[in-house]
Specification:
Number of helices: 3
CATH superfamily of the largest domain: Galactose-binding domain-like
Structural class: mainly beta
CATH topology of the largest domain: Jelly Rolls
Largest sheet: 7 strands, antiparallel
Radius of gyration: 26 Å
CATH architecture of the largest domain: Sandwich
Number of strands: 34
Shape: flat
């Protein structure tokens, strides 16, 4: 089979020149592949590169390679290359789904060598490093859409391995989300080859921190931790930079911090949960008003109200009409569900749970009831002058005998910040 190598790049990266011949598959003008996402396997040969592709649930018409993705029928393309390949570069289309569920996996033979790689931005080139040991010419690769969305690529570039220094970072962008004064850790990994130098790591925003600013290739391969601290409500960005042997790679960092702490004394609101978008599972404390309906499938990023109430969940609302679904089970279901306890509707409660996708939108799972109900024999604190007073520090930890400092004071359902002298 004739294979035409389309792209020739000369890389001068500090340790001597080496020639690399990359193969570029331009899907934007292709009409030779499948014209529909069929759930049967088909094959076709690229007239420009001579590469034979196997397709499943994929089409190549419309100006891009369109891989249909969901849990049971993930689309894929499979192929082998005439070169030793160290990296596959994927350029997304202008119509690509921009969502967290838009991910792919790369297989070499039967081995999944890159898992759940996010390709969730349009008109973006993503670089996937093939681990050593899976780069030989003739290796059969498979690019599989394994998320809930549909990756679309206008081109794929197969980069020939060289003896020059190379560096590739697995993540192009990372999102953080925290309650106020909370921290979140995310791991960044990558590969550096053909150099023994340490890698310099830096970040240009002091709210993001690193355990070390100089790491080895082995440490990068294992993954380094980036910690974000939400010091003020709002959004912010930063750039994480890796430098070695004249090479530079960057990762775009973004973060959102909500105005409440997610503690029992200062729980998250319904609006906070929606804003955090499940990017930080917690667990956290959450407060809201129990609705008189239960959760239905999401619309425009928020749960709807079901036509028939179920005992398996409740809706928490706020005064502006925002809603989240809250899963309930076990003792929590007995206490909170509105099918058996219709008088719960309209009461403001605090629950504790993990922030996870529920009915297709941000919600709460693994829920524990904390406080707020005034019925069903539950001994809740009543917000009146006779209710006991509790104190918490600013991290939400209960303090028995506060002295000399700023504390959160709770009496019944009334919460205030006070200075104790």
């Amino acid at each position: 089979m004739k294979k035409t190598l389309l792209s020739l790049a000369i890389l001068l990266l500090g340790l001597g020149a080496a020639k690399a011949e990359n193969i570029v598959e331009d899907w934007s003008t292709k009409s030779w592949g499948p014209d529909a996402q069929n759930t049967t396997v088909s094959t076709a040969t690229s007239p420009s590169t001579g590469i034979e592709y196997t397709f499943y649930n994929t089409k190549t018409t419309g100006g891009y390679a369109f891989l249909k993705g969901n849990a049971t029928t993930g689309g894929y393309i499979s192929f082998s290359l005439p070169i030793e390949c160290s990296e596959i570069q994927l350029k997304t289309s202008s119509a690509c789904s921009e969502a967290t569920g838009n991910t792919i996996s790369l297989y070499a033979g039967e081995k999944e060598v890159v898992k759940n790689y996010a390709v969730n931005s349009r008109d973006t080139e993503y670089k996937i490093t093939i681990p050593e040991g899976y780069r030989s010419a003739g290796t059969v690769y498979k690019i599989l859409a394994n998320g809930s969305k549909n990756p679309q690529f206008v081109s794929t570039t197969y980069v020939e391995a060289t003896t020059n220094p190379t560096m590739s970072i697995a993540q192009a962008e990372i999102g953080f989300a925290t309650p106020l004064n909370a921290t979140q850790e995310q791991t960044v990994s990558g590969t550096v080859e053909n150099t023994t130098e340490n890698i310099s790591v830096s970040v240009d925003n002091s709210n993001f921190s690193l355990a070390s600013t100089s790491i080895t290739a082995a440490e990068l391969s294992e993954g380094i931790v980036v910690t974000y601290t939400g010091k003020a409500a709002g959004k912010e960005t930063a750039t994480l930079k890796f430098e070695v042997a004249g090479l530079t790679q960057t990762v775009a960092l973004s973060a959102i911090t909500v105005a409440n702490e997610g503690t029992e004394a200062n729980p998250l609101t319904v609006a906070d949960v929606l804003a955090l978008q499940n990017l930080n599972a917690g667990p956290f404390y959450v407060t809201g008003i129990i609705g008189n309906k239960t959760a239905g499938n999401a619309k425009e990023g928020m749960v709807t109200e079901a036509t028939k109430n179920e005992a398996t969940n409740i809706i928490l609302k706020d005064s502006e009409g925002k809603m989240i679904g809250v899963q309930v089970s076990g003792e929590t279901r007995k206490i909170l569900n509105i099918v058996d306890n219709p008088s719960n509707a309209g009461q403001t409660v605090i629950v504790k749970g993990n922030l996870e996708n529920y009915y297709g939108a941000p919600g709460v799972k693994n829920t524990e009831y904390v406080s707020g109900l005034s019925t069903n024999g539950i001994a809740d604190i009543v917000a009146d002058e006779n209710a006991p007073v509790e104190y918490f520090n600013l991290q939400g930890i209960r303090v028995e005998n506060p002295e000399n400092g700023l504390y959160i004071r709770r009496q019944g359902n009334k919460v205030t910040k006070v200075i104790v002298k």
